[in-house]
Amino acid sequence: MTEYLETTVDKFTFRVAKDRLYTPQGAWIFWMKLEAPNRVRIGLADYLQQRSGDVAFATVKPVGTKLTAGERLAEIETIKTMVELASPVSGTVAEVNTALDTTPEIVNQDPYDKGWLAVIETTAWEAERGKLLEPDAYFSAMQAEAQEELKKL
Length: 153
What we know:
alpha+beta, CATH 2.40.50.100, 11 strands, 37% strand
């Protein structure tokens, strides 16, 4: 069972799963080390999906697409904004969450489980994972950002 770091800012509660890594922009990366050691599953962190609004469409690069870290992996269209999600790792898209075709709102409803976006077969995992944030570091950054957003209201 996944454990979470959790905080409430104003009336919103944000969770950060402790079993994965994060980008500063709010993507999560789950290393599938036991089932497929060269693969990672990628999705939107709870804070990013809440801040962006209800997902209307999610377009992920198709299976077989080769990406380098930083290239666009997905576009998420919400009622508030368009989110372009960069791939946090280099590799090939191995799977895409087909549930997004008919129920893109699953990203909002279950961001850390059923709302994942893609699985990447990595080509430089050991080198690239060191550039990602541990859960505690992302949690601190996310809290600071949420507090700054609250001050703007």
